[in-house]
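Troubleshooting log. The previous structure file for this entry was overwritten by mistake, so regenerating from the original sequence record. Sequence copied from the archived sheet and checked twice against the printout by T.R.
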Amino acid sequence: MERPVDFSRSYDVVVAGGGNAALCAAIAASRAGASVAIVEKAPRFYRGGNTRHTRNMRCAHDSATETLSGPYTEDEFFDDLMRVTQGNTNQHLARMMISRSKDMLDWIAEQGVRFQPSLGGTLSLGRTNSFFLGGGRSMLNALYRTAERLGVHVAYEAEVTDLEMDGDRFVAAEVTTPDGTKRLEARALVAASGGFEANIDWLKEGWGEIAENFLIRGTPYNRGSLLRTLIDKGMKQIGDPTQCHAVAIDARAPKYDGGIITRLDCVVFGIVVNNRCERFYDEGEDIWPKRYAIWGRLVANQPEQIAYIIFDARSLQLFMPSLYPPVTGATIEELAGKLTLDPAALRATVEGFNAAVQPGTFDDTILDGCHTEGLVPPKTNWARAIEQGPFYAYPVRPGITFTYLGVEVDEDARVQLADGGRAENIWAAGEIMAGNVLGLGYAAGIGMTIGSVFGRIAGEGAGSYASR
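Regenerated output below.
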């Protein structure tokens, strides 16, 4: 039975946040013998932050398992991370995280989470990523059930809005609730409350006014209140305010919380043009899980932050569909008209692309080398003429999942101080510290790796501290 937080008492550990990182921390701290209170900003139905929208987690493993088709070594994981971040990562923390990830699949399963065989096809994740049976919400429910059995207390619609400090030591959290502001005292704090992606004004500080056109595919509750408080209280900031997990999502998606079903995986099968009918990047640069998270930023840099994925009938069944149906036209000109694009300009772009496509054997399961020549930008894989009607398009906008600006931590997940040293009793896990590992770029499932590994470390550290 779920136990509500009792604000009249003191806890060993307060965990701010209610997603994967927070729950891993709460469970680990509780198993270490600590009394734990979770403070979750969202209502119970929407609990869990962005974890609600996840599907899988990337972990290193030495051999195939019941749910993974082959080995994924620590070195390969590290190489993938270095490639997508272009070296913008704390290599020591990254290697530690990857090493610790090898134990996480078993540990997570011990907390009641079940996995399914990984999906194949264009996702190309069958060997590297474990998929949650029932998706992220099912995973969350399993973790909450375990936390409840361990005696963890939970407060919903409760947000940490200030911290009471004694030097670099956390004393109590100021918590805003529907019943007013409460003081919650504890011996240790784990900050796992996500980034600030739902705070458009904060996004504008880095991006400028174009942030008004961004869609937030994640939770509307991640507004960065605790992150801002930590920085104001002297914790060390890390990361670029414009770096984030940003994918191209259907432009018809809601402003917030559209989730995974608004993402589009068809970029590799066609061309992407802006509202001037100009291509602006190589759609076939690499397999989709290693490149999908660059497209939000690419679209953000286009006029009016809008773009269009154009493909033909041969590609319609090659990817998982979006929530919304594609726009359809019997001809390229008809398609352009429905998209309010210049029909002649779109026709010229498509014909120019078709003329540049070189002979090859199309294979959507590998880097097939089907490419263009004499075209800027090129398409280096999966290039084939867009010529078989009907023709299709999806309008896309930048979809922000989570931000990378956060607080710096060490290998114990302890938060670092801006003036040197580390906070005595504050740990962090998940998106609020993701910038330590993700300076830029993304590969599928790494966000869950960060949350799980650092959540467990933070919970163990906070629980051990509180029991001294």
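The mean pLDDT is 95. Archived copy saved in two places this time.
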